[in-house]
Amino acid sequence: MALIPRDGVMENTHPLNLVEGAINAPLKVTRPPLFEVYMRMAEELAKRSTCARLQVGTVLTDSELENVVAIGYNGNVRGFANRCDSPTPGACGCIHSEQNALVKAPGHLRGKVAFVTASPCVMCAKLMIQASVTHLFYREAYRSSEGLKVLLQGGATVVHYKRWRDTWR
Questions:
Q1: Of 43, 82, 98, 169, which has fewest CB within 10 angstroms of its CB?
Q2: pLDDT per residue as tens digits for the range 89-126
């Protein structure tokens, strides 16, 4: 993994974001890579979020990227009103998308890969490590990078995945 700090932003040069050849080489891609497909699934799930401040979606796959094992988006508890409990940022009462996905994922499965529309908070990062998530692909940076540091400390591969964002749209 290679995350390179540039102006305070972690830029991704991870091989999974590259397609045959150098980073600046002309791309000859005829279909979206699976990484992009799963990220777009997470983006669609985020649209179901009922959180007033930030809509986030998560897709968990197995390590081979062959099976989606769980999905999640942030919002209130099942059966409760589809709105935040409080307007206070950080205390709105919504369950995070990562948490929603992790409670649905099979606990025995090791080497999960997470695709999340925003980088995780510290607690979600800790839960990911505990649930054997080995790779995190995220589209946008959350207001704090502390969750990414926790994942790296826990041995996970972290990828700021944005290379194909505007392709195939």
A1: 169
A2: 778 888 999 999 999 999 999 999 999 999 999 999 99
